[in-house]
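Schema walkthrough. Field components (list of strings):
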Amino acid sequence: MKTKEDAEPGSSSPEDHERTRDPGNTASRLERIRHSCAHVLAQATKERFSETGTVHIATGPPTETGFYYDFELPRPVVPEDLEWIDQRVKEILSEGHAFVRSEVDESSAREIFANEPFKQEILDGILAGNLDDNGVHSDGGPPVLSTYTHSSFVDLCAGPHVDNTDEISPDAVKVLNAAGAYWRGDEKRPMLQRIYGTAWETREALDHFLWQRSEAERRDHRKLGRELDMFMFDQSAPGMPYWLPNGLCVLNRLLDFSRTEHEKRGYQEVSTPLVNEKSLWETSGHWEHYVDNMFVIPIDEHRTYGVKPMNCPSAMIIFNRRTWSYRDLPLRLSDLDVLHRHERSGTLQGLLRVQSFRQDDAHIFLAESDIGEELGRIFEIIELFYSTFGLEYRLRMGTRPSSFLGDVNTWDHAESALKHILDESIGGDRYVIAEGDGAFYGPKIDIIMRDALDREWQMGTVQLDFQLPRRFGCSYVKPDGTRDTPVVVHRAIYGSLERFLAVLLEHTAGALPPWLVPCHVALLPVRTEHTEPAKNLVAELSEASLCARVMEAAEGSIGARVREARLARIPYILVLGDREASGGTLAVRLREGGEIRDIERSDAISRMHRTLIERHRTTDVAFADLLGNGQADH
RNA sequence: GCCGGUGUGGCGCAGUUGGCAGCGCAGGCGACUUGUAAUCGCCAGGUCGUGGGUUCGAUUCCCACCGCCGGCUCCA
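Field assembly_structure (string):
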């Protein structure tokens, strides 16, 4: 993903994506182009496969960057098919076919699509007054059935489309890849073949999109993790990262930041067992609702242990060790332990989706009346953290899922409490609601970010829980001497540190904020005789908390060593020759570009130090006044 | 879990009618002592993901399993 600073002019923002999702007549020109391309793709695919056997078409909507169409095909799609289809799509586009809309009644629709079982099912849905996949509303009136025909292809479709395929530039369209997709997104229904394509208004826009994709590959955190020697995986532990010295250093600095800021805000850190006996997970409800995601360890015929996928049950145990007064609340227990969640095979993705990870987790026990104020404090922390890293996020509220604990009234109450707070502190337009996306014990608000390939990921989360404290019999003494059950807020700011670091790496293309990296300064003595002065400088730098590494003359030419330091994304490169060894000055080359020669030694050191303690995201902020105009802003 | 692809030294890749496995980078050693993105030479390194099968012989053909990649489903 691109950071705000280097986003290409004209590139689409998430807000644009939201806008283009509008169904109906307000569809943008691009959306009509893409939707039309989906039909052309379906025509080409039918042509390709109908000799082999029966082709059934399902649905083919536009997407944020293109389109796809789902089919049931007589055989798997091979790369040669995609090539052929790509050529054929371009050919059809250039033939100048009109898209003709017709409104039809049920019986003729049934007849036109007599051999299309998926279309029949869509018809059932529309006639039953539901939304169909293309966004047709029944609007209370009689459902409108429409077809769009171009060339030999007719589809049940609400549109809209371009008037004629000649409005679409064939060299702005490309068929990309094939993948499986369940019919109606339901894993119990047939697996269809989905063919993806991308379409733009101009060839330049297509080229730009393809360029962005290759850029994203360059920024892929898995690639950067290897190059920077930060983490690795082994076949024997799928989805469980090995943290190497460079990576663990970054991880620890992220944790340090979290610990420092939370300590200031009254959080107390605890650490709890990695595995607990099954009965604990039964009490918490995990055994019933989450066991598929747990690593389960049978010890003998009487005992079974579960590796913790969450810290919350242990937090309840800690709370229950003594009697609490209302004066003790809110009690804020943070927990940075490693969690394990068993994932279905085929779902793992580098650090973005792992089976073992750390969370900057905390459980806050509080009186119901304090929820609003406490959530306000949590949102302040979120804002501090994400602005420190310059990351943009959006919020998503998840409501009661199908598998849940407790009673519906309590849920409704919790949901409206969260919604009220969101509306008040965030504003109704800055979050979306995802029905059924809550945790099984309570509704939640998630922080959502995008990776290099624009895929969305859940980062931090704030969850309201009325269930677990009740199930564990938690209580505190109120001012009147009676007891009450506290509410628990589960919250994580980074979310998974693994996932957070992955997104941060992709946003920064590996150039992490200097305060996070293991080595701040590369010292390059010009000749062997400059090694000694360089080593003295290392000591001086370390007094300013700057970690420096000497890359000796024997390691290669200055050019070679500069290259190596650049590839390692070391924030500052200092070349030390006769001038620097004798005088009191340094030559500082900044990772973000720009070089300052003959800067007074203590001045340079204090500027670099400032970059760390002020947590700048780039090296150039502290040197802005020494660089040319505007350089500091890039 | 499902669909498709893929798996060759640390990394990136070659390797077809099945016949003793190659290149670049990285690494080690030696020389070079260098002013801002690659100095030169030599050397070492692989049970070709794992297990079966076919064959006189399998990296190559077949089957199963595992990992990885892209989707779907699920989710921090």
